[in-house]
Amino acid sequence: MAVTIEIPTAFRRFTDGTPKLDCDAATVAEALRILTAQFPGLSRHVRDDQGQIRQFLNIYLNEEDIRFLGGEDCAVKAGDKVLLVPSIAGGCCSLQI
Amino acid sequence: MPEIYQLRCRECGKLWGNEPRSFCEECFSPLEVAYDYEALKSIAAKDKLAGRPFNMWRYAEFLPLPEGFSFPNAVGGTPLVASRHLAKNWGLGDLYFKNDAVCFPSLSFKDRVVATALAAARQFGFQTVGCSSTGNLANAVAAQSAQQGFDACVFIPADLEPAKILNTAVYGARIVRINGNYDHVNRLCAQVADRFQWGLVNVNLRPYYAEGSKTHGFEIAEQLGWRLPDNVVVPMAGGSLITKIAKAFRELVALGWVEDRPVKFFGAQATGCSPISSAVKRGLSRFEPQKPDTIARSLAIGNPADGPFAIKQIRESGGWAEDISDREIVQSIQLLAETEGIFAETAGGVTAGVTQKLVREGRIRSEETTVVCITGNGLKTTDALAAEYPATEAIAPKLEAFEAYLDLQLAASAAAGKT
């Protein structure tokens, strides 16, 4: 299935400036695998050491957060868009001097 | 005052200087404002505060304000109200309400965060500022933009309370209503910030914005006589405020302005949108996002950006998180108004109701000092209460009509007493 992965500006330094990637995938997970295979520099930013999608990275399939669709194994169909959006958090649990 | 602060990545520690940026491009983790505390110690002094007005700018040294910053208006400086009645009813010795329902200029604690965000917006040369908002933030951005001459463009869920929309529109701000919930709006704003050169206060200015919340904590400590409370009960939407009050307390301890003591942080949510409290109660470090369904719209963030930090803060402090139903929220708004004379918005009902629940659960004890954070004004969410107060029948402007009215009321009271 041809789906489009949209890549935010901040991520494009790892994709040689490429703003989107069309790929054939059956699930969001597969689409992410194709993305990170093509742009290996993105891998550690998409997944943590345990292989989970990073806590501060939100992934949407069209309009919906994939966590509401059963997670990254949710199926995709032709024409779908996968969006990567960094979570915007302030943070603060330390007082480093 | 030279800049003694800059952005630092929470995860990898990379320093980014000062620029409109909310996440680290090395590891995509959130940024926060980090200070040179040795330099801060040399410029901040408690006795300097004596000559300053009681508003958030009295803590200027602790805030990310550019050199030569001139204070544009009075923000914050809200009352810490000692409870007279609820403390007694709940069996507590020392109970206070930090009342940001009367924060200026727009009657919510969001005035504080917008104040520091607009200082950054000015520094970075933005003319257009904006935000994604559940209402209060849009009010604050619109009001302070009008004061300071910024163009404001705010993004809100289409179904917000009419009062919150009107309270933004009146300042001349452009309002973009989005068919979706806050989380949809927030995602769009992340994309807007990526595309346009705008200063979105809770997106690309977020680290500076979040620092404004600390002043809520500074004021609590100062109003308690430079002392930290045992417990703080904080409403949670995105989860930022609870962590910033904690940061404020840590900074005061680091500078020796208050004695160090353990402070338990308690988070309050509505059951209809409780990703953070659910995670705390289930012992999880990662929350599961929810689809909000609650009258507490200002807390209706199902995917709270600072959720993981809030969970960590609550857990490490030995605190807890709770949530209450919409019915309990309404009852708690009424209780707070009837006993303390504070008319809070739905989020304040959440905080008051959760405090009551925590007392019943034995998590807040009688000998402790407890501060409950009220963050918004009830006049903004009157829709939530309208059904509680149906209009009464009008009477003629005559004494006999009033006497007849009294007789009727007394009879009704007597009948109610018998049932």
Q: How would you sum up this structure, described in words?
A:
The complex is a heterodimer of chains A (97) and B (419). Chain A is 15% helix and 24% strand. Chain A contains two helices and five strands. Chain A has one domain: Beta-grasp domain (Ubiquitin-like (UB roll)), CATH 3.10.20. With 97 residues, chain A is α+β, with helices and mostly antiparallel strands. Chain B contains 14 helices and 13 strands. In chain B, helix 4 packs parallel to helix 5. The longest helix of chain B has 20 residues. Chain B starts with a strand and ends with a helix. The chains are: A alpha+beta (97), B alpha/beta (419). At the A-B interface, strand 3 and strand 5 of A face strand 3, helix 6, helix 7, helix 9 and helix 11 of B.
Short description:
Chain A is an alpha+beta fold and 97 residues long. Helices cover 15% and strands 24% of the residues of chain A.
- Assembly state: heterodimer
Uncertain segments of chain B of ≥5 residues (pLDDT<50)?
none
Strand elements of chain A, count:
5
Shape of chain A: globular
- Order of strands, main sheet of chain A, comes to 2-1-5-3-4
Which parts of chain A are unreliable, with pLDDT below 50 for 5 consecutive residues or more?
90-97
> Per the principal axes of the C-alpha atoms, what is the gross shape of chain B?
globular
Q: How many distinct domains of chain A?
A: 1
Helix content of chain A: 10-25%
Rg of chain A (CA only): 14 Å
**Straight-line distance between termini of chain A:** 51 Å
- What would CATH call the class of the largest domain in chain B? Alpha Beta
Compute the average pLDDT of chain B: 94
Kindly report the spatial arrangement of strands forming the biggest sheet of chain B: 4-5-13-10-11-12
Just give the CATH class of chain A. Alpha Beta
CATH homologous superfamily of chain A, by name?
Beta-grasp domain
